[in-house]
Amino acid sequence: MKRIAYLLALGCASTLAHAETPEQYHYGMHLDIAKVISQTLPQGCETGEARMVYLDSKGEQHTLIYLRMGEDCRY
């Protein structure tokens, strides 16, 4: 039983080790986006933080944080 608990804990730890830290976008930054996995957009008509999770051309997952107008803004 201890062995199973140890293996489960080890599996969870290795999953956490692969968690990435989001990268903040800056002007002129080169982006290698092959596929967008998910995107979270700000609400309302103010500038807010958006988050995009994507795969690059090598299949590696990245998270990008950037600023944009809310998606509910109509002029």
From TrEMBL:
Keyword Signal: yes
Signal sequence interval, chain numbering: 1-19
Top-level taxon: Bacteria
InterPro entries attached to this UniProt entry: DUF2790
Keywords: Signal
Protein name per its UniProtKB record: DUF2790 domain-containing protein
Record organism: Ectopseudomonas composti
